[in-house]
Amino acid sequence: MSMTREEAILKIKKCLALSKSGNENEAAVALRQAQSLMREFQIDPDLLDIVEASCDSKATKTPQAWEASLVLLISRAMQCKPVFSSGSSTWGIKASWTFIGVDPAPEVASYTFDELYRQVIRSRKNFIETTLKRVTVKKNKVRRADLFCEGWIDSVKHLITGLEIEVPANIQDRITKYMNQTRGKLGSFTPKDRNKGKALNDRAVNDYHAGKQSGKSAQLNQAMNGGKQYERLETST
C-alpha cells in the first residue's frame, strides 16, 4: 500500500528524531530516509511542524461578527492563521474553521474555540428563552442576541490571552509559505454584523452587559496538547 503525504510527514518526523541518535550508523540511515521521503513527496523541511486543526461552526455561508471576533482573538493568541469553510445544507456539509500554525498551537486553538463556542451558544439560547421570550419580531430577537454574544466574547478575552504557548519568531512567514504551497489564493469575506450602523439605546447596552455578566462564568478545562498541559480555572467574578 502506498504511503499518503500525511503518513510520509509522520515518518519523516520519526526519522529526523532518530537522526539525533547517539548511534552514528542508525542516525545516518534515518537522516537519509527522511531526506528521501522529503524529495519523493516534495515536502519542505521548513514546514514540517506546520499543522492544521479544524472545528465545526453553526454558520452556513458567512459567520456572525461576534463568532469571527472569537476566532480572531484565539488566532492572535496562538499565532495561527484562521480559514473559514462554508457549509452546504444540500450536501450535509458543516461549516468549519481551520487553524493553521506551529504544532501544537492549532490543536490548542481548536480546543479553545470548541469549548468557548459551545458555552456562548448555550448562553445565547438561554438568553433568548428568558430575557427575550416576549420579543415577537425574529430579526429584533436575533440582533439583541448578537449583542449579548458580543458582550460574552469581551468577557472571556483574558482566558484566551492568558494561554501560554511558545511559537517561533518567524512563524507568520512560514505559515504564509505553507498556505501558498497547500491552498493557493483564497477568497475573503466580511462577517455579518446585524447591529452595524445602528444606534445603541439603553436596551441594547443592557443586552451587551448581560452578555458580559454571563461570560464571567465561562471556563476552559484541561487540554493535553503536544505533551504540555494547559489549565484554566473558572473566571473570577
Walkthrough of the structure:
There is one protein chain. 51% of the residues lie in helices and 11% in strands. It is mostly helical and 237 residues long. It folds into two domains: 39 residues, no CATH class; 181 residues, no CATH class. Strands 1-3-2 form a three-stranded antiparallel β-sheet. The chain has a two-stranded antiparallel ribbon with strand order 4-5. Strand 4 and strand 5 form a beta hairpin. The radius of gyration is 22 Å and the shape is elongated. The protein starts with a helix and ends in a 7-residue tail after the last strand. The C terminus is likely disordered. It comes from Acinetobacter wuhouensis. This is DUF2786 domain-containing protein.
How do you describe this structure in short?
51% of the residues lie in helices and 11% in strands. By secondary structure, the chain is mostly helical.
Q: Which helices and strands occur, and which strands form pairs?
A:
Layout: H1 5-18, H2 24-40, E1 50-57, H3 65-78, E2 81-85, E3 95-102, H4 105-130, H5 138-155, H6 157-161, H7 171-182, H8 202-215, E4 223-225, E5 228-230
Antiparallel strand pairs: 1-3, 2-3, 4-5
Domain DUF2786: 10-44
Biased composition (Polar residues): 214-224
InterPro entries: DUF2786, DUF7168, Phage_B3_Orf5
Averaged pLDDT:
88
> Mind summarizing the main beta sheet?
3 strands, antiparallel
* Residue runs with pLDDT of under 50 for 5 or more positions: 224-237
Structural class, judged by helices and strands?
Answer: mainly alpha
Number of E-state strands: 5
Beta-strand content estimate? 5-15%
Query: What would you call the shape?
Result: elongated
Spatial separation of the terminal alpha carbons: 57 Å
Q: What is the number of independent domains?
A: 2
Helix content: 40-55%
Helix segment count?
8
Radius of gyration, in angstroms, nearest whole number? 22 Å
* Arrangement of strands in the largest sheet: 1-3-2
InterPro entries: DUF2786, DUF7168, Phage_B3_Orf5
Protein name: DUF2786 domain-containing protein
